[in-house]
């Protein structure tokens, strides 16, 4: 059964997820640079384990290179995704089935420049 996150729940989970995503991205970069032999096998195994840890939390990894993840959520009785990209301080966006390109701020003031 799918767990639907509130923005508050997603943000509480974020410190743990940030660390996992950081490790996934770093290991993927090493693979992309051409790790070979035993190191390549270890990198592939490490990514598999780290991705599994994220997915066990009910969170979807959408793009490893960008560190893009989605938290399943409900907005006005419709399934949506709370969207977070590596480097963002908190979960501030959501999107429907159109994906990342359709990102909208959870709060209109979240996109204002200070």
What's a concise summary of this model?
The chain is an alpha+beta fold.
Question: Can you tag this structure with a few keywords?
Answer:
alpha+beta; elongated; single chain; 2 helices; disordered C terminus; 5-stranded antiparallel sheet; 114 residues; 22% strand
Q: What do these coordinates show?
A:
The chain has two helices and five strands; from the N terminus they run ααβββββ. It is α+β, with helices and mostly antiparallel strands and 114 residues long. It has a five-stranded antiparallel sheet with strand order 1-2-3-4-5. The longest helix has 26 residues, at 7-32. The protein is elongated and about 50 Å long. The N and C termini lie far apart (40 Å).
The strand order across the widest sheet is: 1-2-3-4-5
Low-confidence stretches: 110-114
* Structural domain count: 1
Number of strands: 5
- Largest β-sheet summary: 5 strands, antiparallel
User: Which structural class do you get from the secondary structure elements?
Assistant: alpha+beta
**Fraction of helical residues:** 40-55%
Distance between the termini: 40 Å
Question: Given the structure, what is the number of helices?
Answer: 2
Q: Give the H and E element order.
A: HHEEEEE
> If you average the pLDDT, what whole number results?
90
